[in-house]
Each structure stands twice: as C-alpha cells, then as structure tokens.
Specification:
It is a single chain. The chain contains eleven helices and eight strands. With 320 residues, it is α/β, with parallel strands linked by helices. The chain is globular, with a radius of gyration of 22 Å. Zinc ion (ZN) binds next to loops.
C-alpha cells in the first residue's frame, strides 16, 4: 500500500541527480503526475464511486470518467491549496534534501528567490512537519536512552535570552561503534518523561541501556530488558557506557550551530529535532534523490498545515 520500501530505484522512481530532476519536473503537469503516483501507487480510485478510470485535467485535478467527481492530487496533503506552482515546491524539497546538513530559511529564500523571509520560514516548517511520520516504526534491538541539554534555544517567540533545553534521545546501538536509527523529543513536563518516551519509541522486548537513575529501573517491569550504569563508584564516564546517545547529542549540538538554527525558538524546537532525526536516520542514503523521494512521499501523507497553525502554539504537538 504505497510503502516507502527500499525497492525504489534511482532514475526510475526518483531523479538520480540534479540534471534529471530538471528534466523530469520542467512543468507543473509533470509534478502533479509524479505526486499522483506517490499518492495513489496502485492507481487512482474515485473517492465517490471507486471508479478506476479518470482524466487528468490541468492543475492537478483527476476527473472520474464514471461519475464526474473531481479530485485534487494535492487536497488533504501538505500542498493543499498552495498558490505556489508545484515546480517551486519541488525545487524547495530538492534543495532541502540535497544539502547534507540542511538549510536555513534564509538559504531557502535566496535559492528560490522568494520575496519574503516569512514565506521561506513557513515552507521550512511545513516540510519539517513531513519529516517524521506519526506512525513511524519503533526502535528495537539494543537501544540507549538518555537526556541531554542543548544550548542556544530562545524561550518563546520574543525571548532574547537563550537557554539550555532538555532533550530525550534514543539511539539503536548496533555494536562496534555503529549507530542505527534514532528518535529525539524535547523533554515533556509529565512525570517519568524518559520512561514514557521509551515506551513510545521502542518496541517491547528490546534491551534498553540507561544511566542508573532510580526512576528508570521500572523499565525492567514494562516489557523491556533494562541494563543501567551507575555513576556511583564507577570510573567510566557516561559517554563510554552510553556511546550512541552521546554521539548523537553532540552531533545535534553541532548541527544546531552549523545550520543557523542557533537561537531557534523553544516553541519550534521539537520540529528541528524532527528534521535532525529525518536526516540522521537517512544519513547512509547514498543518493540525495532518494531523500527527495522520501520527503515527497511523506508530504502527500501529511495533513495540510496552514500558516497560522505553524506560527501559533495551537496544534503544536510539542507544546501540549
Ligand atoms: Zn467516480
């Protein structure tokens, strides 16, 4: 059912390089067709009569030959009601995914020649909403869980002062210094946040490694095998006992500094973590075109995000 499996092929399912990207997506019609293929991989089916036969009209409308119902390929997706040509959106997605370490809103504004910084900012935030899917797969195997503090985050929209913000990280340790997938979230104000985070992101039966904090020991009674390291009387510092999460946290710190996210508002910090996670979990993808494909694939499965919602704290899943 349209899974983003690993069976997609460069040059067939996604453009292999920038030249091919330009060839494939030189018109809005081509972009609509590509989106339709991502959205309806088994072919279009009319939402009213389930008819399979349709005309593709201009501007991304599919008209059912049986009942005449028109369905927009972008409705109900991240690109719902956009007034910007899809070609420009595609260029934004290509640019955002082609830069290994990501881009700032200012960088996006410059490359696309957008008139306002606010538009570029909103686009970046819309795309971040598609970067981690709500039904994402759980981590498994041996997973390290820890909390660390990331500096340089502004409190609220107008806050000048920057602060350190606690972040919960989970990282699969594959052994021999290899790290698998990760999850990150800002620490929540609920009680036992790390325990609940672990339950949200790690599949039961996994081995969880943490420090020796007393409240984490209940993980052993929650369907996990829990191993912990006490600092007391131990001569090994935490980064040796939990190397994967500490490596990930230090990469996150460098990334926040390096892509001009420094000073990011704490209101939006969770979405920066989503972007970091998206990039980290796909760091081994040897084609940037594959990331382009993944992000578009998720964007057509992401609900519309109007600007006022991006700016306000309403519906901000990280401010609940
Ligand atoms: Zn129909």
């Amino acid at each position: 059912m349209g899974s983003a499996g690993d069976d997609v092929v460069a040059g067939v399912d996604y453009p292999a390089d920038f030249g091919q990207f330009q060839d494939w997506f030189s018109t809005d019609e081509a972009c609509f067709e590509y989106l339709a293929h991502l959205r309806w991989p088994d072919g279009f089916a009319c939402p009213r009569c389930a008819g399979l036969d349709a005309w593709a009209t201009a501007s991304g409308l599919w008209m059912c030959r049986n009942c005449g119902r028109r369905t927009s390929v972008t409705s109900g997706t991240l690109f719902d009601r956009t007034r910007t040509p899809l070609r420009t959106w595609f260029a934004a997605v290509w640019f955002v995914t082609a830069q290994k370490n990501g881009v700032s809103a200012l960088g996006l504004q410059r490359v696309l020649g957008l008139r306002s910084y606010e538009t570029a900012w909103a686009w970046m935030h819309k795309l971040r909403r598609a970067m981690v899917m709500p039904e994402r797969e759980l981590l498994g195997g041996t997973v390290e869980v820890d909390e660390s503090y990331i500096g340089g985050i502004s409190r609220g929209k107008t806050g000048r002062s920057t602060d350190k913000v606690p972040v919960m990280s989970a990282a699969e340790n594959l052994g021999r210094n290899r790290i698998g997938r990760i999850r990150m979230e800002p620490t929540t104000p609920e009680s036992l946040p790390l325990v609940k985070f672990a339950q949200r992101v790690i599949v039961a039966g996994s081995v969880i490694k943490t420090d020796g904090a007393q409240e984490l020991r209940r993980l052993g009674n929650l369907g996990f095998q829990h191993k912990f390291y006490t600092q007391l009387g131990s001569s090994t510092p935490a980064h040796i006992d939990l190397p994967a999460v500490h490596m990930v946290a230090s990469q996150l710190k460098r990334w926040m500094l390096g892509t001009m996210h420094y000073g990011a508002s704490s209101d939006h910090f969770g979405y920066y973590l989503d972007e970091f996670t998206f990039r980290f979990n796909r760091r081994a993808a040897n084609s940037r075109g594959l990331l382009f494909y993944r992000l578009l694939h998720q964007a057509v499965r992401t609900e519309p995000r109007p600007l006022n919602e991006l700016v306000s704290s309403e519906n901000n899943k990280y401010l609940k």
